Amino acid sequence: MSELRALTKAEAQSLGPPDWKHACHALLYAPNPSRLFGKIPLRFAVLMQMRFDGRLGFPGGFVDPRDISLEEGLNRELCEELGSGAASLHLAEKDYLSSHASEQPQRVVMHFYAKQLSLEEFRMIEEGAVQAKDHGFEVMGLIRVPLYILRDGVGGLPMFLSNTFIGNAREQLIHALDTLQLMPAEQLQKAVRIAQKRH
Questions:
Q1: Residue ranges of the chain whose pLDDT lies below 50
Q2: Is-above-0.90 flag for pTM?
Q3: For the chain, does the N or the C end have fewer beta carbons within 10 angstroms?
Q4: Structural domains present in the chain
């Protein structure tokens, strides 16, 4: 993939068809007071998915030219990938986080959103996703991101970040964890450093 260029939403929307395609993806998260093994705080449940190509990414996809807005395209894609539980999500402009442009292998502008849910809403989406139209086709399954570092210094988020991600999904995840303060900054930076050493 070519180098990504950060854009404001206005700059991103000025890049239109037929030269540019737009894609929208979302990070869904919920406060999670549980502890792993009764000891390690989970902090938040953060949703990602295993894609058909074996890479990790976020729910969402390409905006159809018939979609009235980026958000309408995103909400349509979420329903296709997550099922009926996503119908009540209604991501809006206020949930927007960032935009990036890439020119290779095709010209795509990627828009990223984030929305906080209750843990109950989050679980309902997880449970309903197996009935979604794209389950077993475009989406192989949902995954929760481990927001901790185990005592071995590798397990948890560092190991998770060592996986293969689609496009800039890895960078989007790190940016969202930092911006939304879903993990203490020091621990997040440590996890990123450890993952980089493993590559």
A1: 1
A2: yes
A3: C
A4: 4-147 (3.90.79.10)
